[in-house]
Amino acid sequence: MAAEFVAPRLWMDPHTTDGGYMSCRKEDREFAIWRSLRSIDIANELGCDKIVLWLAREGTICAESKNPVESIHYLVEAINTMLRYDPHIKVLIEPKPNEPVDRSYCGTVGHVMGVSAATCDPARVGGLLESAHAVLAGLDPADEIAFGLAFGKLWGVHLNDQNGMKFDQDRAFGVENLRQAFHQIKVLKENGYGEHGEYIGLDVKAMRTSPAEANYDHLKTSLRVFEMLEKKVDRFDYDFQKKCVESRNFEALELYVMELLLGDK
Ligand SMILES: [Mn+2]
To answer: pTM for this structure?
Structure first.
């Protein structure tokens, strides 16, 4: 057993009703920093070097309530304080475009890369992508994963699924969009994700209808879907893909992917 990361869980306290690092109140921003530094202490106790920031309320419900430029500067300064507090800690931002706030100020992996570059030690600031959050931003989770990987800054993945632009559903992995799930595993495997000890998390919730004794079945489903899709990725015919790309026959490539996923190849 090992702890992958520690998170300050800034949405759990009355101080952070209006956000943590970006709260309108100075005392609440200070509370958020205090809680973050305490999380770093806990991480050190547990022998892990990662802090994950899920910026749940860092944005607005009332757009005029915050200065968006100043708010981003607050976030960068908060991360700088964490980096200076501990010379070994890595800070991972898990972006999400909305919910519980209406507008998040750091909603995608692209935003995370921008914030990372603005900190005092960009090499220690990266991202964690959750599939459902990418779907909520109208993006393909695999491309968000790829964007982080392209900069060597994808340090965590939370696989799950999401049926369209609703609340953050945390459905079992692959149950809503099988091809999108296949694509995520393909991009992760092609780029050697996990070869340096990176984790894959299954950030999934039990269905409301599940009785207590079936409370973990959504995890079993996610893992089983992952394993089945991983076999499909391993069987992917890169020679055929290459031929299709050379002749620009994307219809043939698309049909091949469908046949592979549906068990006819
Ligand atoms: Mn979620």
So the answer is: 0.95
